[in-house]
Specification:
The complex is a heterodimer.
Chain A lengths: L1 H25 L3 H27 L2 H32 L11 H4 L10
Chain B lengths: L2 H27 L3 H26 L3 H26 L4
Helix pairs in contact in B: 1-2, 2-3
The chains are: A mainly alpha, B mainly alpha.
Chain lengths: 115, 91
C-alpha cells in the first residue's frame, strides 16, 4: 500500500516538474516564465519529498522532509518577487500582449533599492 | 525494493532528466539575464527532486540532508544574483 502511494506521489511530482520545465521553455516572456518555474516547480518538488516521507515512515526522515516543503513554500515566492522586480528595473520587456503594466502608469521609477 | 517502486522511480528519474534538459535549454538560450537565473533556480529544484528519488532507490535517507543544503544554497544564490542585477556589478 505504501509503495503505491510512494509511486503515485513520485510520478505526480516529476510530471509537475516536467510541466514547469515545459512552461519555462514555451512561455513568451520573463514574468510568465517565472510563474511556471516557481509555482509548479514548488508543488512538484513537494510531492517528491512527500514520497520520500511516505517511503521511509520514520520520524528521522519525515521531519526533514516537512522542513524541505515548508522551506520551498517560504522561499520560492521571495525569490520570484526579487527576480521579477530586478528584471523590471533591468529593463526586461513585457510580452506585447500583456494587459496591464502599473509601474509604467505611475510615471516615476520604482523606489530605489534599500542601501 | 519491489518491481513497482523500481519501475516508477526509474520513470521519474527519466522525466526529471528531460525536465533538466529543457531548463538548461532556457539557460543557454537566454535571452536576458533574469531568464537564465530563473532557469537555474528550476534546475536546482529538479536536482532536489532527483536526490529524493535517489534516496528512495538506494534506501539511504542521507540524501535528504543533501537536498536541504541544496535548497538553501539555491535560494541564497538566486537572491544574490537578483541583488546583483539590481545594483550592478561591484566597482
Amino acid at each position: 500500500m505504501s509503495d503505491i502511494v510512494t509511486s503515485v506521489l513520485m510520478l505526480t511530482g516529476s510530471l509537475l516538474m516536467l510541466l514547469s520545465a515545459i512552461g519555462i521553455v514555451r512561455m513568451p516572456d520573463l514574468y510568465t516564465r517565472m510563474h511556471a518555474a516557481t509555482k509548479v516547480g514548488t508543488v512538484g518538488v513537494s510531492a517528491v519529498v512527500l514520497a520520500v516521507a511516505v517511503h521511509f515512515e520514520h520520524m528521522k526522515v519525515v521531519a526533514p522532509s516537512l522542513l524541505i516543503i515548508v522551506f520551498f513554500l517560504a522561499t520560492a515566492p521571495v525569490a520570484a518577487h526579487m527576480i521579477g522586480r530586478a528584471g523590471y528595473e533591468f529593463g526586461v520587456a513585457l510580452w506585447e500582449k500583456s494587459v496591464i503594466d502599473e509601474w509604467k502608469k505611475q510615471k516615476r521609477p520604482p523606489s530605489p533599492p534599500a542601501a | 525494493m519491489n518491481d513497482l517502486l523500481e519501475t516508477s522511480s526509474y520513470a521519474s528519474m527519466v522525466i526529471l532528466m528531460i525536465a533538466m534538459a529543457l531548463a538548461f535549454y532556457r539557460v543557454i538560450r537566454g535571452p536576458s539575464l533574469p531568464d537564465r537565473i530563473i532557469a537555474l533556480d528550476l534546475v536546482a529544484t529538479v536536482v532536489v527532486g532527483i536526490l529524493c528519488i535517489h534516496a528512495i532507490r538506494t534506501d539511504a535517507h542521507v540524501y535528504l540532508t543533501a537536498g536541504i543544503a541544496l535548497a538553501l544554497i539555491a535560494f541564497i544564490g538566486t537572491v544574490a544574483l537578483a541583488l546583483f542585477i539590481r545594483r550592478g556589478a561591484p566597482p
